[in-house]
# Entry
Amino acid sequence: MKKEFKVTPYQVEGNVDYNKLIKEFGVSELDNPTLERIKKHTKELHFLLRRKVFFAHRDLNWLLDEYEKGNKFFLYTGRAPSGNVHIGHIIPWILCKWLQDKFNVEMWFQFPDEEKFLFKQNLTLEETEKYTYENMLDVIALGFNPKKTYFLIDTKHANLMYKEACKIAKKITFSVVKASFGFNDSTNIGSIFYTSMQAVPAILPSVLRKKNIPCLIPMGIDQDPHFRVSRDVIPKLGFYKPSIMHNVFLPPLQGTSGKMSASKEETAIYLVDSPEQVKLKINKYAFSGGQPTIEEHQKKGGNPDIDISYQYLRMLFEPDDNKLKKIHDDYKSGKLLTSELKSILIEKICSFLKEHQRKREQAKKQIDKFIFNESRFHKS
Ligand code: TRP
# Structure
């Protein structure tokens, strides 16, 4: 049977059927009873949860059971530096920031600066070092609490991480990673080892504090294979399996197939883009669910489900449900034109980026407050 889409950490292609993916990956749907359990503690639900941008999970109910018994969790996610951050990357980070505030928990953020060096043809370690710095600024600018946030940079924190990575690596065979990531005999051996490095932050706080601490990982579903492999190993080392929350991909500007890709500039809006670039990209590329002519649009109406501008508002830039509904209904009825919808989005993105870029400047002075080191780490 021909597969019409593909999702791995290193390739996302085609029209992703998220219901099929839930079955294929063996994850659970993030259903309303589970969301209600979160809401019991947070009083409200973030729009990324209300709108099911986070749609699946692993062992979230177990994590909430533990929390309700007084066993607090920590958050973990990451970013492999390889280029500028785009608006699709920040979906899990926004949820992490919200969860950190609501549950008052620690955030462990990994920058595996070797990952994309190993997996990509033309990227040097000097370049990834530069992007590590740039990407850290974007993460800090989202507002994480410096007292409760720890950045781990693989090459910098190697002496802290390598020992744990070896323990994990010893329990993963080549045939398992081959099957999970599509490796073959020409794959370099650094790539084969990499999954064990990505598993380390899920146990490191437990190792350092010498007690078992539950871990929650919000992330894009493409990262699931890494944790499918390491979740089998981690209990064998005496730690809890990490829980996971999965988000859907932000579609590329061109339409609903695949994901926004940092390596294809015309598909993405970067956090360092200028208002002019945003305006140009949205007007030129954002796929429209509208009709070919204004007359036809006013008569038949547009289709918000496939309209990229509407989808970006829904997934990131219009938190107000009432305002979003009005945009949806007006577009569908034909009252709101594509050019008008695009203007709404451009205005929203530009005001977000203006604020983000200001905070990003300030973040340059704060980096040392976020990078892990023994002296700012509280053992208890
Ligand atoms: N592999 C991720 C990337 O390509 C980076 C990453 C490291 C990560 N640890 C993670 C992502 C934990 C999600 C959760 O960007």
Notes: The chain has 17 helices and nine strands. The mean pLDDT is 96.
